[in-house]
Amino acid sequence: MSAEVIYGSELAQSMRDEMKEEVVKLREQGIVPGLTVILIGEDPASKSYVRGKQKASDYVGVDSDLMTLPESTTEEELLSLIKKLNEQETVHGILVQLPLPKHINEEKIIEAISPEKDVDGFHPINIGRMMTGKDTFFPCTPFGIIQMLKSKNIEIAGKHAVVIGRSNIVGKPVGQLLLNENATVTYCHSKTNNMKDYIASADILIVAVGIEHFINGDFIKEGAVVIDVGVNRTAEGTLTGDVNFDSAKEKASYITPVPKGVGPMTITMLLHNTIKSAKIAHGVYNG
Fold first, then answer.
1. pTM here?
2. Ordered structural domains, the chain, with CATH
3. Which residues have CB under 8 Å from 159's CB, separation 6+?
4. Is 217 labeled as ligand-binding?
5. In this predicted model, what pLDDT tens digit does every residue of 149-191 receive, in sequence order?
6. Of 165, 176, 188, 182, whose CA–CA distance to 128 is shortest?
7. What is one cellular component GO term in this UniProt entry (predicted)?
8. Cis link prior to 70 (omega < 30° from 0)?
C-alpha cells in the first residue's frame, strides 16, 4: 500500500482561484481587501515568505502593501506604526513578519494589533475565541491543515490525533482545531515519555518539530494520516520535512509532501482571513 499524497499546492491554487472570483465581486461593491505586511531587517527566509505573500495577494486581487523597516527600528516606532494601521480603514489585515529582532518584544507587538485585523490569528483574543469554539481568525497553518484533511473527506470526529510539537504558531492551535472537530487529541513534545507509543496509536499524526526526518515509517500505524509541517534544509541544500516521506508513505493512507504540502496553504488561509476581515468591516460577512 502506498499513501495518497495530499498536495497543498494544488488545493491552495483551487482556493485562490475561488478567492480571485470573490474579490472581483467585492470590488464591484467598492470593497477592496487590504493587507499590510511589515518586514523588519534583512532575514532571507522572511524576505522569501513575504515575496510569496505579495505574489499570492496580487493573484487574488488583495491590495498588499509591504513596509520594509531597518533592523534598528525601535519597539516604540513599530508600536506607533501598528496604532496608525489599526485606525486606517483601507487596511483589513496587519501582519508583522516573525521572527523580530531581539530588542523588540514579539508578544507586545502581537497584542498591539487590533484583533479585528489580526489575520495571522495570533492575538490572545482570537486564540481565546478559537479555544471556546467561536468563529474568529484562525492561525493560518493549522487552519490550512484542517482544510487539507477536509478536502480529502478524511474523518476527524472520533479519531485519535497526535500532535508532535507545542508551538503557539502550529502545535497548540492545530490540536485545538482538531478538538473543535471532535477528534481526541494528544500533544507530544520534548518532555514526553514513550513518545513512540503515542505515535503508534495515532489515526492522524501532525508533525511540527523542525527536525529533519524525526519520524520514519516504522513509528506510524498502518493507514494513519500523516501531516508534515516541518521545513528543513538538507546538507545538499534541498528542502525536506520532519517525516521520512519515502518510508512513511508505505504505511500511511494519506501523507503531505515537503515542499508542496502544508506551506502553500498557510499563505492561502492568510488571504482567506484578509478577505473575511474586509467583509466583516463592510457588514457583508455572513459566516
1. 0.96
2. 30-114 (3.40.50.10860), 140-263 (3.40.50.720)
3. 183, 184, 203, 204
4. no
5. 999 999 999 999 999 999 999 999 999 999 999 999 999 999 9
6. 176
7. cytosol
8. no
135 is catalytic: no
Catalytic residue flag (residue 53): yes
pLDDT in tens, 237-248: 899 999 999 999
Task: Examine the residue annotation and report whether 147 is marked as an active-site residue of this protein.
Answer: no
On whether 165 is known to bind a ligand per the annotation, the reply is yes
Q: Which of 118, 120, 203, 242 is catalytic?
A: 120
Spatial CB neighbours of 27, under 8 Å, sequence gap ≥ 6: 61
Catalytic residue among 97, 172, 203, 279: 97
The cell numbers describing 177, all together, are 482545531
**Residue 260 pLDDT grade (very low, low, confident, very high; cuts 50, 70, 90):** very high
pLDDT in tens, 84-98: 999 999 999 999 999
